[in-house]
Amino acid sequence: MKRIGFLSFGHWTPSPHSATCSASDALLQSIELAVAAEELGADGAYFRVHHFARQLGSPFPLLAAIGARTKRIEIGTGVIDMRYENPFYMVEDAGAADLISGGRLQLGISRGSPEQVVDGYRYFGHVPKEGSDAATMARRHAATFLELLDGKGFAEPNPRPMFPNPPGLLRLEPHSPGLRDRIWWGAGSRATAEWTAGQGLNLMSSTLLTEDTGVPFHQLQAEQIQRFRDAWAAAGHERAARVSVSRSIFPIVSDLDRAYFLRETASQDQVGLLEGGLARFGKTYAAEPEQLVRDLARDEAVAAADTLLLTVPNQLGVDYNAHVLESILRLVAPELGWR
After folding, report:
1. For residue 142, how many other CB atoms are within 10 A of its CB?
2. How far apart are CA 182 and CA 76, in angstroms?
3. Do the beta carbons of residue 40 and residue 312 sit within 8 Å?
4. 3-class SS of residue 290
5. How far apart are the C-alpha atoms of 241 and 232, rounded to whole Å?
6. What's the predicted TM-score (pTM) here?
7. In this predicted model, what pLDDT tens digit does every residue of 215-267 receive, in sequence order?
């Protein structure tokens, strides 16, 4: 068995060729797709977070709305850029959204990726300390966020408060027990995966790794996962770790599928430069269901992960993306033993 969810980047474009023409469209259609995914039997609805872009940028109102409209599926992010976050305010938002959903939040966070503007986090009031850098600042924000999620009191109460306080130091509210164990780190390398295990965070790995050893992407990612699991065991954490990988998978079962994705049937891994270093990008899987089953059976990283996130082309609309999810859940997943 494998948990299967979707991952949406939430793009919107004021174009006649897009089914998602405005920010309102992107938000409302994200809710509708999550509802449809739950009805189809999918296990999760995840959303990318980008600032200064025509994409989803403020995750917690969206996650809370989906939590109120659904009953079962996991609701998460992939990922929140911690360079931009005030961890104190984020704890309150995350706690509220998690309680609204009944404890179904699965938050992916990370040090961040290339953005739309130069040093955008500075506009949010976050500046790296002297002698530090933005990645270190992101990890410092994450460490504070994780510590606050534990729910221990730290703030001195007012001796003459407006309302009565419980005894002792005060914590941020609302507190959601168990959320700390449902935080994931988006790791782009093998070394970062090992660091993630040391922090007691679940591993979230996408279709991009910021390194290249010459082996196929899925094998490099499988090595990353194994290093994470080995480091997790060495750290002695009491709970079981979770691992997700993302894939672009499109069963071709209709003329519309062929029109959109037939050219992707020849997709291969790509190697390129990202922020001055080599990076390996995973291929898109597009084929008739029988061929997809054969191809995905050889994907070592998908086999090693407990959760598969399917990247969806959200601008093609809710109905089409629900069709893609249904095709995978009905025609591909059972043949691979994922259902």
Report:
1. 23
2. 9
3. no
4. helix
5. 7
6. 0.96
7. 999 999 999 999 999 999 999 999 999 999 999 999 999 999 999 999 999 99
